[in-house]
Amino acid sequence: MKKFLVSLGAAIAIILILFLLFVFGPFGGRSSEEIGAVNTNFRLFGSNDKVLVQRFDDPKVANVSCYASFAQTGGVAGSVGVAEDPSQFALNCIKHGPVSIPADLPDQEQMGSISASLLFKHFIITRMVDRQTNTLVYVLISTKLLHGSPANAVSAVPAGN
Known about the structure:
Pfam family, one: CreA
Protein name: CreA protein
InterPro entries: Uncharacterised_CreA
Helix content: 10-25%
Order of helices and strands: HEEEHEEEEE
Structural class: alpha+beta
Number of helices: 2
Number of domains: 1
């Protein structure tokens, strides 16, 4: 009976995690949208490997959007959400109108994360403010260490018109 309850608890925990990932999406409830995907490798069983492109809008700075692309493993494991995706990604942030940096904007703030593995790896996006040059700097890192340091990408958006 005890083993059954432990198994039931584990099953409920997994279902809850999957539900939360589905409801809140890859950026933890932040304003994000999947732009598209490019298939990179055919898989006979399950979905194909692909590169996904997502856009997220800075919730505290108007007219700034960042685009992140990252690899997603397909196959059976990828289709059910248990494959660990490689730490390969890119980041590009743009302004699509006048940008002003609010005076009370923190010098550094984590914006959200992209889940790349059910439990183990995430991509984390952080906004930094370079007040000397009036520029917003966005950094995307992987929580999986590669040879002692995380993979990373950076993009900068100058304030003004």
